[in-house]
Amino acid sequence: MALWGGRFKGKASLQFKKFNDSLPIDYRMAVQDIVGSIAWAQAIHEVGVLNDDELTRLTAALEELKASVEENPKQILLSDAEDIHSWVEIQLIEKTGDLGKKLHTGRSRNDQVATDLKLWCKETGGDLLFALVNLQQAMMNLAEREKDTVLPGYTHLQRAQPITFGHWCLAYVEMFNRDIGRLKDALYRLDVSPLGSGALAGTAYPIDRNALANRLGFRTATLNSLDAVSDRDHVIELLASASISMMHLSRFAEDLIFYNSGEAGFVEMSDLVSSGSSLMPQKKNPDACELIRGKAGRVFGALTGMLTTMKALALAYNKDMQEDKEGLFDALDTWQECMEMAVLVADGLKVNRSRTLAAAQQGYANATELADYLVGKDIPFREAHHIVGEVVLAAIDKAVPLEDLTITQLQEFSDKIEQDVYQHLTIESTLNKREVLGGTSRAQVEKALATTQSGNEAILNEQVVGAPGKQRIQGALKQVKQRLNAQRAAAMSVRRARMSDVDSIHLLANFWADKGEILPRTRDNIIHDIQNFVVAELDGKVVGTASLYIYQTGLAEIRSVVVDVSAQQQGQGEALVQYLLEFAYQMELEQIIVLTYIPQYFEKLGFNLIDKSSLAENIIEDSEPSPHKDPADEVAMEYILNQPQKAS
Fold first, then answer.
1. Fewer CB within a 10 Å sphere, N or C end of the chain?
2. Does the pLDDT value for residue 456 go beyond 80?
3. 156 annotated active-site
């Protein structure tokens, strides 16, 4: 059954039907189409199109259909329906008769498909965020494992200066961090509902579109119906985010393909991600990395294709836009698959440390250190650069590294060179001098590392940095760990609270207050402090909340950390706390305290016990004793946020 047959005298040809139908692609949005239809049924009921009984029957039929689709989505492909909207409507009419024909009142396939796609993108975006955070964590794990491993750094594919393998890993951690930011930005911008925009001019029924948007889990509704039904910026942005991230993955793959080659021999890929040759039994090929590199072009192609499709489309909807989904679905599937494969590659990578060290000692990688040494002897850098170039030529002629030249040979080029030069030419010296923020010194690599288990701090190299350096490193470690934990929290759908969350927060807080776990919060109090609350969502439902109460400049308290019984043991509470810690860091707070009966929980999150009596009187006064708890059991804990130093 087509949704548009009345205007036509004849049937479309089978060839056109096959060409026109989108069900083989858009069947993946079945659940989103049904969810949108349930919300639309409620909306048209509110304006009198459906009575109570009709709403109940339609909703029950749609919920039943949703459960069936979730159990077996491929059943849809057995139909000859034109698209997923037609399929859902056909199923609904089979279940409810003529009542099913009323659901489309005031709605167009134009705003329907736009809504379905945005809902799908929101859900898929959450999965992609998880994959990115996991990939970043895998690189952090590898960096921790290989933080002391010396590796030659390259420019122009020529050995340049020695770095550490951990430093190489952390370069990709930064790339993936930017990918996380881009994806979150794209998901924020697409989080507006087009439903109720009709075909292009808006619906004729007085629908409360903001209430409808909130019911569907969007933060708001679109403001222009023409734009709403013809906008595919979110598709382009997601494809752009995927493309940039795939470019990073491709560079990661290319590096490892080279490092894995017989010529370099720096790493060996796990058997889990390698294959062999059908002819040459000695071969072990880095196929996982080669496929990641190859699939990047496929994702780039989807972005180029979508931009080309949209570049000359007049407002509003055109059937060209039906081409948005196939490329998007494939690209995001490919991106996620490549991220998961990259995690497998990183986890199983074996580094040949003796080979990487030997390579780093070749190629005169310490030439810059000799130039810097001469600068320290009051020779201008440009002159020092020239002198060292001549020294390198002499070393090449003698086929020896710089450090093997005798002091007499070195002094032929400058009488400023003395016996102490040799301590500057070692690999250790070359690495350790790169102490600047973001440098490759082992101390700096330590600063950038976070451990994978809560509370498990990285092992510090005391001999390299000494006690003051150790303290700085611990602070930077906490900062990086904070950022990673905050990203995990965002991936778990933790967000700042909105006014529409007030009732859910009030319900959760008072449920646990009645049990004596937290202090009660009035609805008015929550409304007044809503900007300081965060919430955790599961399937569009608020299942957890927490708040940050600021006492004074630099000091705040985390309060009311609660999670619904149905969502416990899933990490939501930890995610709420980590999100607030990052929020506090961005606000340039310094000390975060909690008053708690469960210190072991907060200890795992990096809080330390403090003397409760050391807190200001107003803080103690704010903490009313629970009638269900022994006041002596309540302890004070603190988390110190390490802020970046400000320029003087």
1. C
2. no
3. yes
Parallel/antiparallel/unpaired status of strands 541-552 and 555-563: antiparallel
Amino acid identity for residue 612 in this structure: K
Can you spell out the DSSP letters for 427-455? Answer: HHHHHHT--STT-SSHHHHHHH---SSTT
Distance separating alpha carbons of residues 412 and 421, to the nearest angstrom: 14
Mean pLDDT calculated for residue range 374-399? 87
Rounded-to-integer distance, Cα 209 and Cα 82, Å: 28
Judge residue 68's burial from the number of C-beta atoms within 10 Å of its C-beta, 0-12 exposed, 13-18 middle, 19 or more buried.
middle
What CA dihedral angle connects 240, 246, 250 and 252, to 10 degrees? 120
What are the two backbone dihedrals, phi and then psi, of residue 162, each rounded to the nearest 5 degrees? Answer: -70, 145
> Would the pLDDT of 83 be above 90?
yes
Residue 566 to residues 537, 542, 559, 562, 563, Cα–Cα distance (Å): 12, 11, 21, 12, 8
Pairwise CA distance, residues 521 & 487, whole Å: 28
Would you say the pTM of this structure is higher than 0.85?
no
Q: Can you tell me the distance from the alpha carbon of 166 to that of 184, in angstroms, rounded to the nearest whole number? A: 27
Task: Clarify whether 277 is annotated catalytic.
Answer: yes
| Beta bridge mates, 609 | 637
C-beta separation of 567 from 544 below 8 A:
yes
Q: Report d(CA 341, CA 332) in Å as an integer.
A: 14
* Residue spans of alpha helices (H) in 72-164: 84-96, 109-145
DSSP labels, 15-77: HHHHHH--HHHHGGGHHHHHHHHHHHHHHHHHTTSS-HHHHHHHHHHHHHHHHHHHH-GGGGG
Task: Quote the CA–CA distance of 341 and 195 in Å, as a whole number.
Answer: 37
* Catalytic one of 156, 566, 614, 648: 156
CA 474 to chain CA mean position, Å: 24
- Output the pLDDT for position 416: 83
Q: Does the structure show a pLDDT above 70 at 486?
A: no
Provide the residue type at 247 as one letter.
Answer: M
Q: How many whole angstroms separate alpha carbon 644 and alpha carbon 59?
A: 54
**Choosing from 13, 261, 277, 454, which is the catalytic residue?**
277
Per-residue pLDDT at 453: 30
Closest CA to 546 of 524, 574, 514, 516: 574
In 498-607, beta strands by DSSP E: 533-538, 541-552, 555-563, 591-596
Give the tokens for residue 27: 């069947």
Q: How far apart are CA 500 and CA 579, in angstroms?
A: 20
Cβ atoms of 132 and 401 closer than 8 Å? no
Cβ 544 vs Cβ 572: under 8 Å: yes
Residue 644's CB is within 10 A of a number of other CB atoms, namely 11
pLDDT digits (tens, 9 = 90+) for 335-362: 999 999 999 999 999 999 999 988 887 7
- 274 SS3 class: coil
pLDDT, averaged across the chain: 85
Q: How many CB atoms lie within 10 A of CB 174?
A: 14
Q: Which amino acid is at 378?
A: D
With cut-offs at 50, 70 and 90, classify the pLDDT of residue 491. low
The whole-angstrom separation of Cα 470 and Cα 481 is: 16
Angle of helix 324-347 relative to helix 233-260, nearest 10 degrees, comes to 30
